[in-house]
Specification:
33% of the residues lie in helices and 18% in strands. It contains ten helices and nine strands.
């Protein structure tokens, strides 16, 4: 692995337009459960499957059951950034990292201090009233009892992309532009199986595509460098 780390460091030194594309594995080392791991949410048992609960239809039809699950399993407020988040902040301050594209909804990149973060699936930190549009912080939603309601009486919805909902077009465009311009693309902590998010890396035009993930991914053959290792081990050695 040390040889691969040396290559990674060399490429980072040579690059001035790096984009980081991250998934759940970026946050698991902060203690946030992964959805698709053998111990993740999808392999635990509830009254309904998590995929069904976290759908637009379920939210509309049964917001009370939705929020019972959501508050129990999606509360990321207590977690803190780890070495990966912190290293990315340093790379951004050096002027090398130009953007982070993330599938995560925990807001840890911003909590660490990153400035340019495109959240493909939204954030639990932002919430809004379906009736009047008034915005509420994550603390309000997670601390209230039952279904979070706005002062106008409307139901509050997390600014999170649920199943059956489209991704934000503006975020997609900005992510695509960043990836197309990148001279290095680091993809980390993602199984690259969630569409359309994983399709974005197909727009990378350079020759420094790095995949860092504990397990193999469908894109390994396309990568210029594959490191099957925990992100903490890799990013603690980069700077």
């Amino acid at each position: 692995m040390e040889d691969k780390i040396a290559i990674l460091k060399k490429w980072i030194d040579e690059s001035n337009n790096i984009v980081f594309f991250g998934g759940a594995g970026v946050s698991t080392e902060s203690g946030i459960p992964d959805f698709r791991s053998k111990d993740g949410l999808y392999n635990q048992h509830y009254k309904f499957p998590p995929e069904e609960i976290l759908s637009h239809t379920f939210f509309i039809n049964d917001p009370e059951e939705f929020y019972r699950f959501y508050k129990d399993k999606m509360n990321c407020l207590k977690y803190k950034p780890n070495i990966t988040h912190k290293t990315l902040v340093k790379l951004e301050k050096q002027g090398k990292l130009k953007a982070i594209v993330t599938q995560n909804i925990d807001g840890l990149h911003q909590k660490a201090g990153s400035k340019i973060v495109y959240e493909l699936h939204g954030s639990v930190l932002r919430n809004y009233c379906l009736k009047c549009g008034h915005e509420y912080p994550g603390e309000y939603v997670f601390k209230c009892h039952g279904i979070p309601k706005c002062s106008c009486g409307g139901i509050i919805k997390p600014d999170v992309v649920l199943y059956e909902e489209p991704l934000d077009e503006n975020i997609i465009v900005k992510s695509l532009e960043a990836i197309q311009k990148a001279d290095m693309l680091i993809v980390a902590g993602t199984s690259l199986t969630v569409h359309p998010a994983c399709d974005l890396i197909n727009y990378y035009m350079g020759n420094k595509l790095v995949l860092i993930n504990k397990d193999n991914t469908p894109y390994d053959a396309k990568a210029n460098l594959v490191i099957n290792e925990s992100l903490g081990n890799v990013f603690s050695k980069i700077l």
